[in-house]
Design goal:
The chain is α/β, with parallel strands linked by helices and 612 residues long. It has helices spanning 3-6, 15-19, 22-38, 41-53, 56-59, 61-91, 93-122, 127-146, 151-172, 175-260, 264-295, 308-325, 346-362, 402-405, 417-423, 429-439, 493-505, 516-525, 542-556, 574-580, 593-604, 606-611, and strands spanning 304-307, 329-334, 341-344, 368-375, 386-395, 445-449, 453-464, 485-489, 509-513, 530-533, 562-567, 585-588.
Length: 612
């Protein structure tokens, strides 16, 4: 058994756990050495007392001074071990216990021999024996505290002190000797009980202190993490406010300029700028929605055939105007040995690449931005229908410091507030890219040198597609839009005008109401092919209005009216909530005119109405 195992209470319920805790073992061993070192001074008293008040030194000089030398040697060893205990333990933990055991054996053994030799030489009633008796009793009684960390050393100490004199008493015989032997055995048994109790209490206190210290460290770590998170969220909210208010200012300003414009051409230019600002605002909102879905583990990837080179070309075309404005060289390369037809999620792949290439262009003042796609050197061996690709984006931009690189993929994080003020951004883009790369089976990493540039890359695997896997896209004959009767439930005046105008252009007959209750009443008194329902309206919200309509359809055996949600509620779970209420479809705001027309064609076509 190792020394570390010997120092634990065998009966402790946590004994096994403690044996695996080197910090507790170390503390106990060092504490034991300190206690044994600071408790040595009592051993000198007996020899001083005997030297002054008894004839022992003159009548038995060799024995007396031999025992004194042994005891003082033990005292010196214990004091030395107490002083250098940390050094010894650091180099050889078991050596410290062995040396302490040897020091105890020498000192306690010599003291026990002094005790028994005094009894044999002077008897029970001699003053010299009484002095040794009182001293030994005091040493034994105080041992419980000194040896609390290690009950086995306590047993060795008591045995060496009381064992020889007990045996001698039994050999002498007689009532007095037998009574004294019984007293020694009782004292030994009492010390065993006391020592065990103090040993248990000591280890419990040691564990409690360790647990309290660990909890204090955990609280400190949690406090630091919470403060860091609060700072990050505070910075994120400040960034978000800036990112939302900036395009909103452009939207309101351009709208005012368009209103005051003197010519249609001038008004059209302002409206184009207004549209650009609105698209920027929508990009911020989409980042928030994507992060919400990823954070909740609800974002899933498509698995469809697509053209890799077309996807890369789309990314470059989108970022090229930004690069040209700054005079940057933009290169997009796909090596020849990379297959073009793959199976995966092209939308999310483009999202990651647009973010990485767009960031590279944003943070590069002069030089170049390069996107490279190549086969991974260690691809999927044996998988003939799989290919492992590396996507690498390199720039000659401002770079990122080594410290900031540790947090660059965390949510709400940017390199520093100065970068945020200079270049903008929500701090969610790279966090979303990192999560999307993981969903695609890869890992987004980076290398960067301040003022030199950065390289972001990730590797992921795709199935190799075939020509016949690509969906057929026959050109459908252009058919005139079939006018239908539409009930539009929308409380926002601008949204009322927008939807009604767009629908009227296609010949649809549109009735507009502003509350859920009004929508319910209009449905009761009229016939509609389709209801477009907002969810948040006064008097009665859209969800409750749909429930009322579905309930009354069932009760009155009325034809089921198709209801589609037109809602700005686009957070995780909103679509499912609307469909669960009885709606047939969902279109999130903001939507384009084509998205609205496609929704109407899908849910209000004659074949669908006939089947319903």
């Amino acid at each position: 058994m190792s020394a570390s195992q010997q120092s634990f209470p065998a009966g402790s319920s946590n004994g096994r756990k403690d044996r695996l805790s080197p910090e507790l073992v170390r503390e106990a061993h060092l504490d034991l050495a300190a206690r044994l070192g600071y408790g040595v001074y009592g051993y000198a008293l007996i020899f001083i007392a005997l030297g002054i008040t008894s004839p022992y030194p003159t009548e038995h000089p060799k024995l007396f001074w031999s025992l004194a030398a042994a005891v003082f040697l033990s005292m010196g060893a214990r004091l030395t071990l107490a002083l250098v205990r940390k050094t010894i333990y650091a180099t050889h933990p078991q050596l410290l216990i062995w040396l302490l055991t040897l020091a105890i054996a020498i000192g306690s053994g010599a003291s026990g021999l002094l005790y028994v030799s005094t009894l044999r030489s002077y008897g029970f009633e001699n003053w010299t024996f009484v002095i040794v008796l009182l001293w030994t009793a005091g040493i034994v009684a105080g041992s419980g505290i000194s040896f609390a960390p290690n009950v086995k050393l306590l047993a060795l100490h008591v045995f060496l002190l009381l064992g020889p004199v007990t045996v001698q008493s039994l050999l002498m015989g007689g009532a007095q000797a037998n009574t004294f032997a019984t007293f020694c055995l009782g004292l030994s048994f009492f010390m065993a009980l006391v020592g065990r109790q103090m040993h248990t209490v000591y280890w419990q206190q040691l564990r409690d202190r360790a647990l309290e210290s660990a909890r204090a460290r955990e609280l400190e770590v949690a406090k630091t993490a919470a403060e860091s998170a609060n700072r990050a969220k505070g910075q994120f909210l400040a960034n978000m406010s800036h990112e939302i208010r900036t395009p909103m200012h452009g939207i309101l300003g351009m709208a005012q300029l368009a209103i005051d414009s003197e010519t249609p051409e001038e008004s059209r230019e302002y409206i184009k700028t207004l549209q650009s600002c609105a698209e920027g605002l929508l990009a911020v909102l989409n980042d928030i929605l994507d992060f919400s879905k990823i954070d909740a583990g609800k974002l899933t990837l498509e698995n469809i055939p697509f053209s890799l080179r077309r996807a890369v070309d789309d990314v470059c075309k989108l970022v090229l105007p930004q690069a040209l404005t700054k005079g940057l060289v933009l290169e997009c390369q796909v090596t020849d040995n990379v297959p073009d037809l793959l199976v995966g999620d092209p939308t999310r792949l483009r999202q990651v690449l647009i973010n990485l290439v767009g960031n590279a262009a944003k943070f590069t003042v002069a030089g170049s931005v390069k996107l490279q796609v190549a086969r991974a050197e260690s691809g999927l061996a044996g998988a003939q229908d799989q290919v492992s690709l590396i996507f690498r984006v390199t720039d000659t931009g401002i770079g990122i410091s080594e410290e900031d690189q540790k947090h660059i993929f965390e949510a709400f994080a940017q390199a520093d507030s100065g970068v945020t003020r200079r270049f903008g951004g929500t701090g969610l883009g790279l966090a979303i890219c990192s999560q999307l790369a993981q969903l695609m089976g890869g890992h987004l990493s980076m290398e960067s040198t301040p003022h030199v540039g950065s390289t972001f890359q990730f590797a992921c695997s795709f199935a190799i597609g075939r020509e016949r896997d690509l969906p057929m896209r026959p050109v459908a004959p252009v058919q005139p839009e079939v006018p239908v009767r539409i009930l539009l439930a929308e409380d926002n005046p601008a949204n009322q005008v927008l939807a009604a105008k767009l629908l009227s252009r296609r010949g649809h007959k549109v009735s507009v109401v502003s509350t859920g209750l009004a929508a319910l009443q209009a449905w009761e008194t009229g016939e509609f092919d389709l209801i477009l329902m907002d969810d948040q309206m006064p008097v009665m919200d859209g969800v409750e209005a749909v429930r009322q309509i579905r309930s009354r359809e069932s009760a009155g055996h009325r034809r089921r009216t198709t209801i589609v949600s037109l809602s700005a509620s686009a957070m995780l779970g909103d679509r499912e909530r609307f469909l669960a209420s009885g709606m047939d479809g969902y279109l999130a705001k903001p939507f384009s005119s084509e998205e609205l027309y496609a929704t109407v064609r899908h849910f209000a076509n004659p074949e669908r109405r006939a089947s319903g």
